[in-house]
Structures are given as structure tokens and as C-alpha cells.
Specification:
The protein has helices at residues 2-9, 18-35, 47-57, 74-86, 91-99, 109-121, 190-201, 214-218, 222-233, 312-315, and strands at residues 65-67, 102-106, 133-135, 147-152, 161-165, 171-175, 202-213, 234-241, 254-261, 274-277, 285-287, 293-295, 302-304, 307-309, 336-338, 343-345. It is of the alpha/beta class. The protein has a single domain, classed as 3-Layer(aba) Sandwich (Rossmann fold), CATH 3.40.50.150. The strands form 5 sheets. Strands 3-2-1-4-7-9-8-10 form an 8-stranded mixed sheet, sandwiched between helices. Strands 5-6 form a two-stranded antiparallel sheet. Helix 6 (109-121) links the parallel strand 2 and strand 3 (133-135). Helix 2 packs antiparallel against helix 6 (109-121), helix 3 packs across helix 4 and helix 7 (190-201) runs parallel beside helix 9. The longest helix has 18 residues, at 18-35. Mean pLDDT is 72; it is low at 13-19, 35-41, 162-172 and 284-347.
Length: 347
């Protein structure tokens, strides 16, 4: 221990560039998360995934971004780096990026402190400005603000609960539900509540990329209600099914949903959903009206890198469905919502 302290003390930390110190801080987070199944691992989202989500959104300068389960701040850093690298910012835009772009909530005090330090080390905010991270329960109420972008990984765990101290000194947990006028339905499912919260906090033309577990895509009841509303009020253009093993917590099956908010309308906003399945290695598969399976790579459309955009009209299909594993089937028993031109699944 004495030798370790001596080695650390021998470094000139003050003279290091902000980027270097920030990278060291991030590296320690990732190392600790990979070494433990709890602790930092429950808050740490793999950085390559965060970067990919940010690049898919292609954020623009002088826009606001929020993460309502900020953890250690990974989404903020990726967003900041993307703007700084892709745009030649003027002074006002640089100030906006540093002081006005980001808003985050974190419910765990120690994690909120780690996040603030991480942001400061990466030149986001400073000690004299209003902190971008707030210690609060994001689901408790409407923030009153609306954001251009929301990127986040809501905490996994099916139910929200509170610890109650009983008269005899024992403690018990009770399900926690949120009664909010801006929510479509009431549920104790944390992920479903976060999806509702995100939709309520987006600007009319806002964009979101959110990591959700499988239960958000397949659960009935409140889950079905929320998915219907999501399809009706936003454009869910992409769902990425993530392979298992990329999170530090074992057994996590997750997806990323990308959607754009839309103005109120009687028309259903989601017309086509593009699904990329990296879990079953089936990637893209369309099912035509006559039952033929067409790998999307050989279909019609604009190809950009690994992405292929397919037009339903080009394929002459009355509907399409993505085949992914055993949970999606081409029949009416699969809890599928039929819409004009396409089939959209309420899994």
C-alpha cells in the first residue's frame, strides 16, 4: 500500500490535460464495473453502445439533452464528444454546450457525486455554475422542461418499491406506483414508467434513444397500452435487439428503441419499424403477404453501411413483420397490431 501511494503521489496530476484526467476517471469506472457484478456495474452502460446510440441520433449544436437516470454520465460525455468533433463551434455554441446543453437526474447520492466529477473532468459545467445533475426521483413528477434529445438506460428491475418501517421495527417493501396526469397508464413497472416519462419530456420534434429490457416489448396490460400510445404518438423508426453478454450484469436481455416525437394528430405516427436483431443473428427479415421470407439485405432500398432502408411499396407487401426468434410469429395470436401497409408488433 505504501508503494502504491508513493507511485500515485509521484505523478503530476495538476499538469495533466482535462481530457487525460477524464479518460483515467472513465477507465477506472469501466474496470470496476467489469470486476464486480454489483456496485458500479449496475450503473455502468458499455461505452461502445452509448457511442453507437449517440451517432445514430446525430445530435446538433445548441440543442438540449437529458438523461433521467444519469448514472456516471456516459451519455453526456458521448453527446459532448460528438458535437465537439462534428461541428466547428463558435463561442456561443461552445458556451451552450458546456453550460446549457445537459440536464440529468440521479436518485443515488454517491452516484450523483461520481457523475458530477466525471462531467467536470470532461469540461462539462464547472464549480461556479449551476450543476447539471439533480439528486431526485425522475418519475416523481413532470420536470416542466422539454428537451430536444433524451438518451438513457433506465435502471433494470421490474418493479418500483419503497422500504417501509413497521411499528415493530421490522422493514418491508411495498410496490411504488406513480399517479401522474401526463402518464398514459398507472403501473409499478419502472421501465414502462420511464418510457412514459421520456415521452412527456420530449419537445414536439424531440428525439429519443432508450435502452429497455425485453419485458417492455412483450409485457401485456400496461405494457400493451403504452406501446399502442407510443406507436400512435411517436415515430418508432428503429429497434435494435442487443446480443446478450454486453452488459456487466449477467443475463440481461435488452433492446434500444429509437423514436421521434410528433405533433398531436389523429393519424398513427409510426408507419414502418426497422428492426436490427443482433441477438439471433437473423438481422433483418421481412415476411411478405404470401408468406415468403426476404432477407432485408437483398431487398430494395437505400443501403448505408450495415443499414438498409426498405420501402413497403417497393416490396409490394400488404404487411411486413420482422422475424426474430420465437416471440414473433406471423399470426393474429402474437398480440400484433395491424396498421395500414404494415404490421407493427405489440410483443
Amino acid at each position: 500500500m505504501h508503494r502504491l501511494v508513493g507511485l500515485i503521489d509521484g505523478e503530476t496530476w495538476v499538469g495533466l490535460d482535462v481530457d487525460v484526467k477524464g479518460e483515467i476517471y472513465e477507465g477506472l469506472f469501466e474496470k470496476f464495473a467489469s470486476d464486480t457484478k454489483t456496485g458500479a456495474g449496475q450503473y455502468f452502460t458499455p461505452r461502445p453502445l452509448i457511442q453507437a446510440m449517440t451517432e445514430c441520433l446525430r445530435p446538433e449544436p445548441s440543442k438540449t439533452m437529458a438523461d433521467f437516470a444519469a448514472g456516471t454520465g456516459g451519455f453526456f460525455l458521448a453527446f459532448y464528444d460528438y458535437i465537439a468533433e462534428h461541428y466547428d463551434l463558435n463561442k456561443d455554441q461552445k458556451d451552450f454546450l458546456k453550460y446549457k446543453t445537459f440536464t440529468g437526474n440521479e436518485i443515488v447520492p454517491a452516484t450523483a457525486r461520481l457523475c458530477l466529477m466525471n462531467l467536470f473532468l470532461h469540461n462539462i459545467g464547472d464549480m461556479d455554475s449551476k450543476p447539471p445533475i439533480h439528486l431526485t426521483d425522475s418519475l416523481a413528477s413532470d420536470s416542466g422542461k422539454r428537451f430536444d434529445y433524451i438518451l438513457m438506460n433506465p435502471p433494470f428491475g421490474k418493479k418500483s418499491s419503497i422500504t417501509v418501517s413497521n411499528e415493530d421495527g421490522t422493514q418491508s417493501k411495498e410496490s411504488l406506483t406513480y399517479e401522474r396526469q401526463d402518464f398514459w397508464t398507472t403501473t409499478s413497472n419502472k421501465q414502462l414508467n420511464f418510457v412514459q416519462h421520456i415521452c412527456s419530456q420530449l419537445k414536439v420534434d424531440g428525439k429519443a434513444a432508450v435502452i429497455v429490457p425485453d419485458n417492455v416489448l412483450f409485457e401485456g396490460g400496461a405494457g400493451e397500452t403504452i406501446r399502442k400510445k407510443l406507436l400512435q404518438t411517436t415515430e418508432i423508426h428503429t429497434i435494435l435487439r442487443l446480443p446478450t453478454g454486453i452488459f456487466y450484469a449477467n443475463g440481461v436481455k435488452a433492446n434500444v428503441i429509437f423514436f421521434d416525437n410528433r405533433p398531436a394528430s389523429k393519424e398513427v405516427q409510426t408507419k414502418d419499424v426497422w428492426v436490427y436483431d443482433m441477438r439471433t443473428n437473423q438481422h433483418f427479415t421481412l415476411l411478405t403477404a404470401d408468406g415468403r421470407c426476404i432477407p432485408i439485405e437483398v431487398g430494395l432500398g437505400e443501403k448505408t453501411g450495415r443499414q438498409v432502408l426498405i420501402s413497403m411499396k417497393d416490396l409490394n407487401c400488404t404487411y411486413s413483420i420482422v422475424i426474430s426468434g420465437t416471440k414473433l410469429n406471423a399470426d393474429t395470436k402474437s398480440n400484433i397490431l395491424f396498421l395500414p401497409l404494415s404490421i407493427f408488433y405489440l410483443m
